Amino acid sequence: MFLPVILTAEGLPHGLRSIGTAVPVFMLVGLGTNYMLYIWYRTFPVNKLARTTGLVAICALMILSLIQAYRAYFVAWAQDSRTYEAYSET
What we know:
Strand content: under 5%
Distance between the termini: 28 Å
Structural class: mainly alpha
Radius of gyration: 19 Å
Mean pLDDT: 85
Order of helices and strands: HHHH
Largest sheet: none
Helix content: over 70%
């Protein structure tokens, strides 16, 4: 799935060619998050406050990441005039 993105002759990787890599990337993110929680819970097997704090911290980071990605894609990138030029059919 990475080959069309890597071997493109246009210079920069094209977003439409890289759509097939979304599933493996999300799987890696999920596995990494699961592993972090596993390590955190193994470190604090009994302390409920520490376990809850770790879970809340990871969820807060994921929510902040979601907000940042939303603003970067739907606000900043969508309003850029170069985006319209890149995807126009002229």
